[in-house]
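Budget justification note: compute hours in this period were largely spent on complex prediction jobs such as the one shown. Inputs:
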Amino acid sequence: MSCVTREIVLPVPRERVWELVTEPDELREWLSDDVEFEPEEGAPLRADEREGVVELVDEGERIVFRWGDSRVEWRLDDDPGGTRFTVTEHRFGDDAVVWGPRLTALASGAALCPA
Amino acid sequence: MPGLDDRVGPVFAALADPTRREVVRSLADRPGLTASHLAGELPISRQAVAKHLGALSSAGLVQARREGRETRYTLTPAPLADAMEWMAAVDAEWDERLARLATRAQR
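Corresponding output:
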């Protein structure tokens, strides 16, 4: 339920879609006005005020990156109409968020210890 | 919308756990259950229930009300509305971006 998924079929070959989603000049046309991006694992990225890092690059297939509080996956698949581009964005939830300062402070109490 | 993101993150984190989702469902059906009631229905200990209730209440999903010697729990609806608002906003952002991408691809 924490996920948003969108997909679109673009009437161009996969190589062209890969350019559209990895070249900063192209990204500025559709992703956001101000983009810093490099399709390399570990590369920092920025889209307007949102900052993040590229986590995974599968040449021509898939890119995963974090931006802001979310993780985004872009996937390219062949489609009779050209190339299907699928976007998935989800917020990370880890216990560091749930067990914030307030609960960490309480955690000394036995009530919060797992049985 | 950083303000909204800050509120929604803990909600998703709290709901990422299947047992906590069961707790939420039980409280949605029967508001005012105690931790002992919940432990009676779920295959986990009372201590584990207390831990899950702590996480849910920290995310603002659940509130506790003392009644005599018992503590009763009810859902607070606002955080779920925030979560849905977040999804609607992110959805709309991608719709706009993909529309621009489609235009670009056709050039």
